[in-house]
Amino acid sequence: MGVMNINDYLHTLANWKQDALDSFSKKMSDQNKWFPCIPAVQGFALNHFRYGFGGKPDNDTTALQVAALLKEFSIQSKDYGSNTSLIIFLETPDEMVEDGSVDYFEELFWKLLSTISSMDEKEWVAPIPVNPESSLWEYCFHGEQYFVYCATPAHKSRKSRHFPCFMLAITPRWVLNEFNVNQTYAGKIKGRIQTRLIEYDNISPHPDLNVYGAEENLEWKQYFLRDDKSSLGSCPFYYKK
Question: How far apart are CA 140 and CA 172, in angstroms?
Answer without folding.
Answer: 9
